[in-house]
Amino acid sequence: MAEDLVKLISDLKEEEALKITKERLDKGDDPLKILEDSRSAMGIVGKRFASGEYFIPDLIYSGEILKEITEMVKPRLTKQVEVKRLGKVVLGTVAGDIHDIGLNMVDFMLDTNGFEVYNLGVDVPAQKLVEKIKESGAPIVGLSGFLTLAFDSMKKTVEAIKVAGLRDKVKIMIGGGQIDEEIRKYTGADAYGQDAMAAVTLARKWAGVK
Amino acid sequence: MEKATDKTQEQLELWCSAPGIEFVSKEAEEAYKKRTRRIVDAIQLKKPDRVPFVPMWEYFYARYANVSCYDVVYDIEIARRATRKTITELEPDAYQAPIFFGVGPLLDALDVKELRWPGHGIAPNMGHQFVEDDYMKADEYDTLLSDPSDFMLRRYLPRVCGNLKAFEALSPLRNLFAYWNFYPELAALGNPEVMEATHKLLEAGQASLNFITFLASFDKEMHALGFPCWHGGLAGAPFDGISDTLRGTRGMILDIYRQPEVVKEACERFVQLLLDMAIPAARINGVPIVFVPLHKGTAPSRDGKGGFLSLKQFEEFYWPTLKKVMLGLIDHGLVPDLLIEGDYTSRLEIIKDVPKGKCIYHFENVDIHKAKKILGDRVCIRGSVPLRLLALGAPQEVRDYCKELIDVLGEGGGFIMDASMASEDAKPENVRAMIEFTKEYGAYR
Question: What ipTM did this prediction achieve?
């Protein structure tokens, strides 16, 4: 049945996936095992997205199915879920920009791929980001921006990280509608990613995950 | 004898003839007619005298005139001066009306929640930004489609306008069909909160009147000086109409899995709704070109990977009703000007299925060689100098880029030069380089 659930979620069969989850819970299956299966399924979804088989709607829908399953499983959990995390990532849309579709997708993909994500939301002042990096000790930072105004805002944020003496302690990735290699150079970030899976690939590389 | 002219031809010729415009001089009249002719030739895939330059400037008007975004949003006279200065000094072949200027008082009166604007959640020197949310819930399609006006008045407006929240309490206007229904059905209007909301709505009405009076007088002035106005009306893709402002991206995406038929039905219904707004507007404004901005059908990459919709979903949910809107406009002799965000290279074969010489496709990002090859004998292509280059590059880089666009997209005609998107952060010297280069190098000999 474990394979069933993994397959149903990764094939985006919402109703069937929820039905199997309920059946498994009813017959006393370990809720942690169900969550584990869901995570395996999300790994498959991510791979399919990266390969071009899946698209943004598939990501969003799979996220919704995962959320529903998590809600069903939660009341049955007797202990806190101990998830081994690959590393910490601080995320935010830079100051002046309030777009969050891409930001939240990156958050979701990093989270389901095992990273501990501190998502500071939109219009994040550089200083707030710096504080979060210090407080969390996260070695990876992701900056999002949709508008051209984000170019300067990203540059300023990277500078603020430098001024705070943290530049050699973190790797910075940027992404969003207008972002490309030229903007990467302009802002002084370490890399840019085209989509949410690119963020995962970068984060895994930087965290030393094979 | 020539075949009877089609409606597009009729409307474009009417535009070129500049009916009712009182020009300041013979030169202004000639300039106006030369400019519209140049554009019309490009639209109809003929070779104009040179590549037309039609910029989507939006807040660039403020940047160029060195005033803040706050100033142009709140002060109509500053907006007028800034826009006038930019147009008369840079001399585009047609100008985009300052459609986001002078609206501050209106936004304040309504306390609009789906937008943040300069001085209201946005720094004074940045343009407005949209706040997307599911203002309509998944189970409200029936309510929306059975009585759209009622939905807007009693559900949508109270949700997106803080000052109109009290309208939730109103009775449906459709109840007012007989005198005996007036007695109880109007009672909510006596509620102090509804009264207050009504006052705010009247205030917004006054601001709206000021706004359109400004646009009308501005157009009159620019026309007189020889500058044609670009868009006569606004339409869009029905899928965007619903997802951008009502369901939100996430909501709409879940709907296409959970209630696909409902989404399709709603998109079908939105076709006429959009046409009923765009067609009269274009007629009143006397401009046969209709702005059709596209959002959710796009992809971030050349091969379509990571797209907001898969190619299959694009063909199933997005394109059919967008095409109906386009054909509806074309039926009335109007030219859809599609602003195509993202990268549509993977969708070119699908979107080429439109009548010849009646549409403009303004690309943000596209493989220009493929675009010319696939669409060159079908639609006029507009764009697409990258915003990055205009904001951060040097004039020579801009000229080099424009050269490639003119060489490839401009070959044989059917091309309009512009930035890839609204260029509010462009450096004035780069915009100037783009214009001067187009005027010089873009000449067809």
Answer: 0.91
